[in-house]
Fold RuvB-like helicase.
Amino acid sequence: MAPILILATNRGITTIRGTKYQGPHGIPLDFLDRLLIIATDPYAPKEVRQILKIRCEEEDVDMSEEALELLTTIAGQASLRYAMNMIITASLAAAKRKSNTVGVEDVKRVYGLFSDIGRSVKTLKEFQEDYLYSEVE
């Protein structure tokens, strides 16, 4: 029985570690020849919405349809992982205002408090001169 190894990468053509050679994803060609490559497609908004809905059920979070729609939009702009992390945080924001259901205002509040990677990078570049090591690109 052969072991199953799952690799996920988006590195493209890059230097193979420990050599001066370039290869797809930085993987030696003799190893790459033995792999089965399965291309994947991004999730459609309908699929993202269903994933988020399932995650809400697993987290025991009651979310309004409008809030779920906003969360789906955020997942498309930022990432699915970021949107899934917002579920429990938005639930805490709703609980603070003594509501059992997460609403749009809770999702917006959490979105304003926690940056996704894209907004974080944008902020760092915008205020680059204000940081100690501003010469780093």
Remarks:
- The radius of gyration is 21 Å.
